[in-house]
User: What shape does this take?
Amino acid sequence: MDQERSRIAADLNGLLDGEVRCDDLFLQLYSSDASIHEIRPLGIVRPRHVGDVANTINYARENGLAVHSRGSGSNVIGGCLGKGLILDFSYDMRRIEVEADGTFVVQPGAVLASVNRELKRRGFVFGPDPATRSVATMGGVLALNLTGSHWARWSNWKR
Ligand SMILES: Cc1cc2nc3c(=O)[nH]c(=O)nc-3n(C[C@H](O)[C@H](O)[C@H](O)COP(=O)(O)OP(=O)(O)OC[C@H]3O[C@@H](n4cnc5c(N)ncnc54)[C@H](O)[C@@H]3O)c2cc1C
Assistant: This one.
């Protein structure tokens, strides 16, 4: 690991509860997505909660680093690749919670198909249904404004 990556790993490990990786294996794993592109990042953060996300963003801002959000990496345009810090939401931020009043609270790493499984039990559906729904995360769905073959059917999300 080079000096810059060692420093970043040490700094972030002191700031975050989630995992921070700057070793060659992880850099290689996160250098690609479902596209043909390949970009080696500085490091990978797997935030455990929203506080980790905020601390990563603040650290990146203070140190002039770019941040690249990542879900399941199934996009085909290299959208979640970059030379900065990869924020991988799919590992530890995938909780789906239903509050007492029926409100759904979904973390960005939750997979669309899992969200819809929970919604279906209550008679609801979240409209976008891309072919990658069994792997696409809610962060990826919202960031790319995903559609799917039934987009015209759901004018709102209530069945
Ligand atoms: C075979 C195939 C079929 C497809 N069919 C369709 C289709 O029918 N309709 C359709 O619309 N798309 C389709 N796509 C596109 C695909 O569904 C999406 O690109 C993908 O599933 C997005 O989810 P992801 O979790 O993999 O996101 P990723 O690939 O990880 O990220 C995609 C983008 O979202 C951003 N992002 C991810 N998480 C966050 C977050 N938490 N906060 C901010 N930004 C975030 C990333 O930075 C990146 O720019 C298809 C792709 C394939 C390979």
Observations:
- The chain has two domains: 3-88, 96-143.
- The pocket of flavin-adenine dinucleotide is lined by residues 33-34, 68-76, 79-80, 89, 108, 130-132, 136-137, 139-140, 143-144, 146-148 (CB under 6 Å).
- The domain at 3-88 is CATH 3.30.43.10 (Uridine Diphospho-n-acetylenolpyruvylglucosamine Reductase; domain 2).
